[in-house]
Amino acid sequence: MTAELIDGKAFALRLRARVGEGVARFRAAAGRVPGLAVVLVGEDAASAVYVRSKGKATVAAGMESFEHRLPADIDEASLIALVERLNADAAVDGILVQLPLPGHIDAARVLLAIDPDKDVDGFHPVNAGRLATGLPGFVPCTPLGCAMLLKDQLGDLSGKDAIVIGRSNIVGKPMAALLTAESCTVTIAHSRTHDLPGHVHRADIVVAAVGRANFVKGEWIKPGAVVIDVGINRTEDGLVGDVDFGGAAMVASAITPVPGGVGPMTIACLLRNTLVAAHRRDGIDYDAAAFDGIGP
Length: 296
Ligand SMILES: Nc1nc2c(c(=O)[nH]1)N[C@@H](CN(C=O)c1ccc(C(=O)N[C@@H](CCC(=O)O)C(=O)O)cc1)CN2
What we know:
Protein name: Bifunctional protein FolD
Number of helices: 11
Function: Catalyzes the oxidation of 5,10-methylenetetrahydrofolate to 5,10-methenyltetrahydrofolate and then the hydrolysis of 5,10-methenyltetrahydrofolate to 10-formyltetrahydrofolate.
CATH topology of the largest domain: Rossmann fold
Radius of gyration: 19 Å
Largest sheet: 6 strands, parallel
Strand content: 15-25%
Distance between the termini: 36 Å
Family: Belongs to the tetrahydrofolate dehydrogenase/cyclohydrolase family.
GO molecular function: methenyltetrahydrofolate cyclohydrolase activity; methylenetetrahydrofolate dehydrogenase (NADP+) activity
Bound molecules: the ligand Nc1nc2c(c(=O)[nH]1)N[C@@H](CN(C=O)c1ccc(C(=O)N[C@@H](CCC(=O)O)C(=O)O)cc1)CN2
Structural class: alpha/beta
Low-confidence stretches: none
Number of strands: 11
Oligomer: single chain
């Protein structure tokens, strides 16, 4: 292996510590602590683990955590009614509905019910529009974390050729918008892309978010490229990313591991977004650019 390992776990711990300091300053200025409400529907084991981690991290940063666990057979109207109560709750700065939701619930309708100014996941179409047009809003946590790692690794991203493999609303599209805002030349690749290896081979930055184990091969990577692996695939060999790590690490200049790369950044960025939400709601100045240098 020749690539440098991008330690997302360590970066996330530093970011969480900075959020904790920001919470202490907010508390002194506002006389209250930020609050994050997390809604979990059903018994999905991985989701339950993520929700528990979010609650613990929220409390560790000095914020208040409100956890709502609902049965898998809850109807959509009752879930939306809970979201509306949280929208109106003055102690709640951020609202997050853990995904995936059970099949009988239309996730898009539920996300639409969240007040965009409390949408710390950044999934509401209003926040997608704000990101696309450069207005202040909330950026989804996983791509925000990827962008932070990239800027930390490369500094100025301007003029870099970047490829984002995957076009989901949660990762691919916001990732492409963030890279565009950083003046990269961005290709969004997907299942219909012709000559994917050729596209990847031209990129200085590769962000893989396809959800297929070891999908991106080492020989596709341009020598010296930086590779960000968003995939979390459970296989018989354990947890692996979307990138063939062994092959890619031979040619890339830097690469995120799975686990310990992008994943931990997701929760750290959620705390960061919640702190930003609290500042905005109370009209307290918060220089997000000075804090992490990324995003609106
Ligand atoms: N409402 C949301 N739902 C989901 C999101 C989200 O951002 N908002 N993202 C994912 C799940 N997720 C957080 O919710 C998440 C995934 C992975 C990790 C992480 O730290 N992964 C570790 C490995 C953990 C493991 O062993 O399973 C790593 O990569 O090192 C944190 C959060 C889908 N749903």
